[in-house]
Amino acid sequence: MADETGNAKTQNSAVEEELFDVVIPPGVPRKIIIDIARKFDVDVVECRQKLYFANMDGDERDLLAFRAKRDVAEKVEKCLVEEVRKFIGS
Fold it and tell me: What's the whole-model pTM score?
């Protein structure tokens, strides 16, 4: 019984703690990555993604991503786009 109860708690925690990855495009400066990770207190993780541009039609690459809850991930994505645009001068 204790195991069943423990498993139920683990499953509920997993549902409550659903995390999302915001993939960091190759070439984003480290300073931007570090600043965003500190500002939003998110984890930077590796994730494998298929790429579909240039000569990489479906090639899998290990990329970095910010991992966070959905609401934080959306803020991180917005901030990442803004910071990259500032960096490239658009």
Answer: 0.73
Distance (Å, whole) CA 80 – CA 67: 13
Per the domain annotation, does 11 fall within a domain? no
pLDDT tens, residue by residue, 23-75: 999 899 999 999 999 999 999 999 988 877 777 677 788 899 999 999 999 99
**Chain centroid, CA 35 distance in Å:** 14
| Residues facing residue 60 across a β-bridge | 50
Look at the block and give the residue holding tokens 């590796």. 46
Q: Which residues, in sequence order, are bridge partners of residue 50?
A: 60
CATH number at 76 reads 3.30.1370
